[in-house]
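Per reviewer request, we include the raw input and output of the structure prediction for the construct analysed in the revised manuscript.
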Amino acid sequence: MILLINPPLVKPSEPPPGLARLYGTLGAHGIGCEVIDANIEGVLHLLGKGSLERDSWTMRAVRNRARNLELIRESRSRLNRDRYKRAVSDLNRLLGKSAAGQARLTLSNYQDPGLSPVRSADLLRAAEKYESNPFHDYFSQRISRAIELKSPGVVGISLNFLSQALTAFSMMGFIKAHYPGMRVVLGGGLVTSWVRGPDWRRPFDGLADSVVSGPGERALLGLAGVEWSGERPYSYAPFHWGHYLSPGRILPYSASSGCWWNRCAFCPEKAEGTRYDPASPKEAVREVRRLCSTHRPDLIHFVDSAMSPALLSRLSENPPGAPWYGFVRMTRRLAEEEFCRALKASGCVMLKLGVESGAQSVLDAEGKGMELGLASKILHTLKKCGIGTYVHLLFGSPSESEAEARKTLDFTVRHASCIDFLNLAVFNMPVNSVEAKSLGTSPHYEGDLSLYTGFRHPKGWDRLKVRRFLESEFKKRPAIAEILSREPPLFTSNHAPFFVS
């Protein structure tokens, strides 16, 4: 028996797809498995605690807690943007106050003012001082109950985001203190990035019995003495759909690992040597259809780094059985109206698009393989066909100057009528990027586990200048401000498809 845990805190809008695949794979190989989505369970536990604060906002949030949980889960047909935003704001307030004095919590993040998730010493300290974690009351009882009822031989912790790290290590410290003979396995996307970094020194030996890099199926099956057959089906059987904070049941699914393009400069996945490993489009769509027939989701979230053209073609011909969205690269097929109408008919409600820059020189220098003329045509075609757009822009890359950033501003204003949502990101230099060697680097985050490094911008367009530009000019343009006002607070792209008109 293997116990798998998804620790807090990430956006509690949908089940974790990695654990769904591990659960399905272990079951397909005859291995007993129990799953705890401690993320949603822990958030709901803290929301139920109330608050000692007596200010009017917090008191209102406490008083309206049940109603706000109902509103944030309102079906799309009844969803009201203003009531939704108020519900998210009040629940976020309540969650933050529940951990006052211990940590800074939001519905999408966890920060501890005294501990850093990119310092291995701080993570080990979190394991030692596990009782000080704001989720301790919840996870100490929940994990103990699961271990005593199911008697697992292995506990696997899935760590994918920095916002989960401190609580993940607090959980590991609790397990080792109360069940010293228990084998603890640490894996997940963030752990993989750490292990593949240039400065990995195995700092968690003694706390984690095994640290897994990459997909965990083979490693977990190996611990059970079973050889992996290559089969890795998804199963969402252990997840409680009604718990998640979302205006509908979201089913996440990945048809691949890595990126099919894999040519962008400064790409973290390329720097880590992540290999593109897709399922066949035919098999992927067949499995999604199976999952849809079982779970009846309101929305499918394709969590691939980039959905391949072959997968999009397959979906256009074989609808998966529910509305869907995902991230795509801007290929010529997406400029074809007939193809986009077929995508729309298959259930595509929104596409996340990596435009990144409105300067062709930047796109060329960064290896994006995209022409702005094509991007413009795609945005207009998607708008015409009724597919929502969530456009990603990136500022401060080594090839960008302030002049190029202003070209991105102009491009965005010109295409504002075709853009439903915007994500504005400031460039981070991957610490193990080959291209970083040609630039003067310096510590960006002080910690031995940092995935990024500071660098001397060749054009003087540093992070502080970029942020000033975004706040004082870019976001102030009326057309852009209107787009940004549509953003679902905290849940951002995870909820955006429910608000595409």
